[in-house]
Structures are given as C-alpha cells and as structure tokens.
Specification:
With about 240 residues, this protein is of the alpha/beta class. The chain has three domains: about 5-85, Winged helix-like DNA-binding domain superfamily/Winged helix DNA-binding domain (Arc Repressor Mutant, subunit A), CATH 1.10.10; about 90-160, D-Maltodextrin-Binding Protein, domain 2 (3-Layer(aba) Sandwich), CATH 3.40.190.10; about 165-235, Periplasmic binding protein-like II (D-Maltodextrin-Binding Protein, domain 2, 3-Layer(aba) Sandwich). Helices cover about 40% and strands about 15% of the residues. The protein is built from eight helices and nine strands. Strands 4-3-5 form a three-stranded parallel β-sheet, with no helix packed on it. It has a two-stranded antiparallel ribbon with strand order 1-2. α1 packs across α2.
C-alpha cells in the first residue's frame, strides 16, 4: 500500500476539512480530495463522511486509525533517529478547563513539567463554551461532566468537592446562620445557568429557596473572588 495516501488520511482526520488538511500538507484542496478518493478506491471502502461541520471517520476508518497512528509515530521515530533529535515533547498544547481550576489547581503543579520540557508551550482555554476536541480546538479538556462525543480518550482524573462559603465580613452585626433557610438573608453569588454542570445545576435547585442573587458570572474565577471579597455567599471548591 502507498503510505503517502495514509498521510493524507491522517491529515484530513486531524483537521476535519480539505482546506486545513491541504494547508498542513502544503498542497491544494483538490490534491487532498483526489488522494483520499484514490485511497478509498484501493481499499474498497469509504473512509470519511462529509457533514455540515466537516469530515468524520466511517466505522471502517475508525478500525484502521490506531494502526496508522502507530505507523506515523514509528516514521517520526526514524526521522528523529536519523537527524539526532531526542523524543522530548515540543510544541503547543491547548488545554480547555474551567479557569478557577487552571489558576488554583493545575498551574501551581506545572513547574516541574515546564522545567523538564522547556520546548512545550501551554495555552489555556478557560471560556464557558465546550470546545470540540475532534476539530482540534483543544488537545486536552478537563471537564466537570463525562463527554458523550465519540473518538475521545476519556479518563477520570479525580473528584471535586464543593462547599458553601461566606466571608466573615458578611456577618458583621448579624447572627451566624445555623440552617439553610437562614441564608436567604444574605446575598448569593453564583454561575449563570449555561455555565453550570449537571451536578451544580442539581445543587442550585436544592439551594434555590434560600438564594437571593447579588451577582452572577459565566466564569468560576469571578464567583470565587466575589466570595473572597465578601460580595455574597456561594459554593466553590475549597482550594
């Protein structure tokens, strides 16, 4: 088989469009389409389905993908051995995750990794929107819900504890609340509905009778610092 045809296959799989695959391979779109068609003809099966949001793999393509990726890695190893390069990770890694977890949990733990791998560049995507890993909008995503998207390697990285917090300044001249129903006398800060996970949404439903909103945000970090500033009580991770 012609390995070069599989190179076009992997480029289209990674990029999801003929235009972006052509840019990666430094050829024109027509060439990519022609090489994919020739590969499908030689294998006697379709490898891609074209949809409105790009090209996705067929079941046949999914079966051969791990083998082709291993072949590609082996080819890169040969190239590194010939050129005398080591196998240290290099390049840009995009990580999508809530900003508050990036700031308070991951970033303080990155020092050794960055020292040992100086050629890695990390880019954090901390917006409320869910990125599409299949379209390479990010390389790694840390999410608070298990994704349903196909073709992802999914691992549970840990558990997150949430607690209710209030700054002491909110208690000046007031009695410390002993029950949930007493919290309605204090302002509440929290996430906007679209930014909450399923677990947080269920928690909010339980708290709803005791909530008097004073501030809402789509960013976890804004909620965290608002609680710290005494703008209201709310739930957060005990960093």
């Amino acid at each position: 088989m012609d390995w070069d045809g599989f190179r076009y296959f992997l480029a289209l799989y990674r990029k999801g469009s003929l235009k972006l695959a052509a840019k990666e391979l430094k050829v024109d779109q027509t060439t990519v389409g022609r090489r994919i068609a020739a590969l499908e003809e030689s294998l006697g099966t379709r490898l891609f389905e074209k949809r409105s949001d790009g090209y996705i793999l067929t079941l046949a393509a999914e079966r051969i993908l791990p083998t082709l990726q291993a072949m590609e890695n082996s080819a890169f190893s040969v190239d590194r051995a010939i050129t005398g390069q080591d196998e240290r990770p290099t390049g840009l890694v995009r990580i999508a995750m809530p900003g508050v977890l990036a700031n308070h949990w991951l970033i303080p733990r990155l020092s050794n990794l960055m020292i040992e791998n100086p050629e890695i560049e990390i880019e954090f995507l901390t917006g409320a929107e869910v990125v599409n890993l299949a379209k390479r909008e990010a390389d790694i995503a840390l999410r608070l819900v298990r994704p349903s998207q196909r073709d992802l390697i999914v691992r549970k990285t840990g558990e997150m504890t949430l607690g209710l917090f209030m700054h002491p300044k909110l208690l000046q001249g007031r009695k410390k609340p002993q029950h949930l129903e007493q919290l309605k006398n204090f302002p509440f800060v929290g996430l906007v509905a679209r930014a909450t996970s399923d677990f947080e949404f269920k928690l909010l439903q339980k708290l709803e009778p005791h909530i008097r909103y004073s501030l809402r945000s789509a960013a976890w970090s804004s909620v965290f610092y608002s609680i710290q500033a005494g703008l209201g009580w709310g739930y957060s991770q005990p960093f």
